[in-house]
Every structure is written in structure tokens, then in C-alpha cells.
Write a structure and sequence with these properties.
This protein has about 80 residues and is of the alpha+beta class. The chain has a single domain (about 1-70), classed as Lrp/AsnC effector binding domain/regulation of amino acid metabolism (RAM) domain (Alpha-Beta Plaits), CATH 3.30.70.920. Helices cover about 25% and strands about 35% of the residues. The protein has two helices and four strands; from the N terminus they run E-H-E-E-H-E. The protein has a four-stranded antiparallel β-sheet with strand order 2-3-1-4, with helices on one face. It is globular. This is AsnC family transcriptional regulator. InterPro entries: Dimeric_a/b-barrel, Tscrpt_reg_AsnC/Lrp_C. It comes from Pyrococcus abyssi (strain GE5 / Orsay).
Length: about 80
């Protein structure tokens, strides 16, 4: 399943967070962006449990992430 995660990063830590996420096997695309969010990720994962694991074991352990918004892609 494809998932998009929008991240707000503490100013000055954008590059550090980007570098730590870019080579993760779940991350298929990653972009630094302008606007309300600082980084956008596209993940390809095997269901909600894998998404929970990514949030708990990866995102929540990275210093600098202030907010995340997760969007699960639909096929409708």
C-alpha cells in the first residue's frame, strides 16, 4: 500500500532528518518542500501494522520531527 507522510521539522534539522530517512527501504520517494510542511515521503508498505511500526520505530525516534500527517492512498 502507498502512504504519504507530510512532516514539519524543527528549523535547522531538515537536512539531518532527510538524510536519515532517504535510504530507508520503505521510502520510495522523499522531497524537501516549501509550504506548511518541510518533507514529504512516499512509502510502500505491507499494511497498517507496517505503518504503525514505521511511525513507532522510525519517525518517533528521530529528533526534530515536530508534526506528521499521514495520508493513505486510495484506489477509488
Amino acid at each position: 500500500m502507498d502512504v504519504f507522510i507530510l512532516l514539519v521539522i524543527r528549523p535547522g534539522l531538515e537536512n539531518e532528518v532527510y538524510e536519515k530517512l532517504k535510504n530507508r527501504p520503505e521510502v520510495k520517494e522523499i522531497y524537501k518542500v516549501y509550504g506548511d510542511y518541510d518533507i514529504v515521503l512516499r512509502l510502500s508498505i505491507d499494511g497498517i501494522k507496517a505503518l504503525d511500526k514505521f511511525h513507532d520505530e522510525v519517525l518517533r525516534k528521530l529528533p526534530g520531527i515536530e508534526l506528521s500527517e499521514t495520508l493513505i492512498a486510495s484506489s477509488y
